């Protein structure tokens, strides 16, 4: 226990045992997930499960401090496992270079004590929440918009993320970090606080305060908290209307790969913003940048075509396709990231 004696002075040997026996899953190893993983490995979490299907890019390095220039092009989860194993060889680490989808996520969370969402897209955040409701698992949500950090823990038995935000925002309303930008130090603050909240939960510290959302402004260091109460209209944790069958229907995948794309059959539509087209561009048939007030009915005139939409990562286009399919439009999305 010499390795942990400085923290044992604070939490005691029993507290250290709680940490050593815990299993935590981190979904997303970006600006938030990187420091979360580093600190949890350092304090001696018994087992870390790392999930991220993305590769390291040069633009990641100012904030994702697990990685360096030699790692560019490598899978984040695999490189993170290598680095964390050198930080603490006693931690059992599983790394998955796979997207967190329904089947994979549902099978993986059974034996975890806590899930930390370090992603920057609403699709995955809501899926994590809904799986946790079904499996009665605790999860921490941590997100950033430029300099504003939101941090909360949901036990999902008595309240969940949908109690606070019942549905994802419309496409284009809230940008992710690649669209809005972020300072690396802000993601470091967010990740460190998320790791600390995870330890508070495991050690049963300040449990009366966990049902709060913390809002931190990294520009002026203002911190505010707002109590979270179960929403009696929440169809997830209160009304228990979420089932595995419901999630399977909601997460039906209409993605196709570049290899499957056939310009003789498919009508390709770019829904990114104009400045994004300078980075990478396909041979598309239509440029249609989506906005907050996008009129989906525009594509009713294209109902005779098999439409394929694309964006930088596939996230916006997948949500866009979901909206179009409610109008009876035969729509698909490109499920690959665009190469620069």
Automatic annotation (TrEMBL):
The protein's matches in Gene3D superfamilies, at most eight in alphabetical order, are given as:
NAD(P)-binding Rossmann-like Domain, Rhodanese-like domain
Q: Which GO terms describe its molecular function?
A: nucleotidyltransferase activity; thiosulfate-cyanide sulfurtransferase activity; ubiquitin-like modifier activating enzyme activity
Q: Which CDD domains match?
A: RHOD (cd00158), ThiF_MoeB_HesA_family (cd00757)
The UniProt record lists the Rhodanese domain at 262-337
Record's InterPro entries?
A: Rhodanese-like_dom, Rhodanese-like_dom_sf, ThiF/MoeB/HesA, ThiF_NAD_FAD-bd, Ubiquitin-activating_enz
List the GO terms this entry assigns under cellular component, sorted alphabetically: cytoplasm
Q: Which Pfam families match?
A: ThiF
Q: Which family does it belong to?
A: Belongs to the HesA/MoeB/ThiF family.
Its protein name is Putative molybdenum cofactor synthesis protein 3
To which species is this protein native? Legionella santicrucis
């Amino acid at each position: 226990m010499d390795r942990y004696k400085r923290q044992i002075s604070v939490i005691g040997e029993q507290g250290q045992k709680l940490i050593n026996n815990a299993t935590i899953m981190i979904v997303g190893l970006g600006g938030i997930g990187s420091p979360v993983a580093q600190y949890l490995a350092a304090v001696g979490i018994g087992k870390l499960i790392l999930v991220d299907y993305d590769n390291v890019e040069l633009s990641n390095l100012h904030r994702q401090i697990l990685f360096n220039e030699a790692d560019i092009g490598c899978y984040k989860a695999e490189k993170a496992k290598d680095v964390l194993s050198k930080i603490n060889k006693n931690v059992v680490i599983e790394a998955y270079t796979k997207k967190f989808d329904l089947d994979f996520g549902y099978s993986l969370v059974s034996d975890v004590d806590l899930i930390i969402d370090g992603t920057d897209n609403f699709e995955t955040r809501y899926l994590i929440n809904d799986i946790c409701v079904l499996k009665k698992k605790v999860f921490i949500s941590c997100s950033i918009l430029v300099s504003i950090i939101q941090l909360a823990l949901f036990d999902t038995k008595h309240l969940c993320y949908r109690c606070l935000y019942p549905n994802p925002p419309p496409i284009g309303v809230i940008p992710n970090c690649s669209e809005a930008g972020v300072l690396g130090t802000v993601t470091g603050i967010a990740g460190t606080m998320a790791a600390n909240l995870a330890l508070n939960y495991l050690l049963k510290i300040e449990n009366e305060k966990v049902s709060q959302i913390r809002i931190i402004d990294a520009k002026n260091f203002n911190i505010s908290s707002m109590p979270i109460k179960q929403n009696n209209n929440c169809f997830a944790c209160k009304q228990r209307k979420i089932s595995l069958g419901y999630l399977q229907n909601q997460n039906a995948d209409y993605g196709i790969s570049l290899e499957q794309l056939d310009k003789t059959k498919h009508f390709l539509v770019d829904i990114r913003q104009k400045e994004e087209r300078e980075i990478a561009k396909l041979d598309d048939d239509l440029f249609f940048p989506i906005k907050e007030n996008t009129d989906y009915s525009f594509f009713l005139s294209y109902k005779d075509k098999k439409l394929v939409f694309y964006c930088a990562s596939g996230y916006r286009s997948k949500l866009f396709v979901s909206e179009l399919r409610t109008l009876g439009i035969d729509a698909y999305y490109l499920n690959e990231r665009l190469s620069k």
